[in-house]
From TrEMBL:
Residues 41-294 form the Periplasmic binding protein domain. It comes from the Bacteria. InterPro entries: Peripla_BP_I, SBP_2_dom. The keyword Signal applies. It is found in: Cell envelope. Transmembrane segments: none annotated. GO terms for cellular component: cell envelope. This is Monosaccharide ABC transporter substrate-binding protein (CUT2 family). Residues 1-22 form the signal peptide. The keyword Signal applies. It comes from Nocardia mexicana.
Amino acid sequence: MRTGRRTAAAIGAAVAAAGMLAGCGGQVGDSGSADAQKLVLIPGVANEPFYISMQCGAEEEAKKLGFELDTQAPTEFDATEQTPIVTGVIANKPGAVLIAPTHATAMASPIKRAKDSGIKVIEVDTALDDTSVALSSVSSDNRKGGQLAAQTLSKLVGGKGSVLVINTKAGTSTTDLRAQGFEEELKNQAGLTSLGVQYNNNDAAQAASIVTATLAAHPDLVGIFATNLSSAEGAATGLRNAGKLDQVKLVGFDASPKQVEDLKAGTVQALIAQDPAAIGAKGVAQAAAAIENKPVTRNIQTDMIAITQADMDANAKYLYKSKC
Ligand code: T6T
């Protein structure tokens, strides 16, 4: 066990917290040996600008608060890849884990095991259906984001025509809420007809193929809502390849460098940008509070904004990074 970076106050707080929880029959298990000053961030997937920006915010906050932050990300956005990472982290007993669960139910048991071993669990971005596992969840208001996307798309298509949702993977809490919010808001947009939701498995190439197939089956398609980075990047490619940029308006969630290029080029008309750096920073602040046995906030919502070509420079702080 490393002790070098630990402050006496933090050790005291961790020991006191462990003692209190153990004393009241709580969740501590063998966490007496946990390295309370160590935090582990487990994003949904590696090398992706949304999670890189989250990591940047988390690292900055961890440094400010005197915690060490290690990031371990799966190579695919998939529960079978994320589970062994959680299992490995449990063995190392950090003070807290900040995790973006890749599936709302499939990740429940490994994350519960982390909690039961005494590690404080903070959800960042996505969440489990079971709200009893995490102490705090930090995310955008994803349902509202979907509603905002529907309002934005409706304006872009003049309030009428057939629209499609391209979603990433079923069971991803955030994007499922965005799709639900979009469909709900469509009920207020009488002129828009829903062509339903199709899944691209978090793969941009599959999103491009969905666009090609939908244009063949529904030549009247006028609008697409892509619920995340992969679906939006792929949908833009699909529309460009089909030569349908004039006919079909595209609103995409997220603001990766490629999505921003697509916005500049006019391939995408609006991006619903989140604030992943704030999600990471607030997640670390909650983890620190939990470790130090201070009050935590169960649900925290961060900013989100619809960006167009006209205001992208004014909103530069919302654009995602490829490195810190
Ligand atoms: O949209 C983000 C994130 O909020 C979502 O949970 C999964 O997809 C992204 O990481 C973008 O790819």
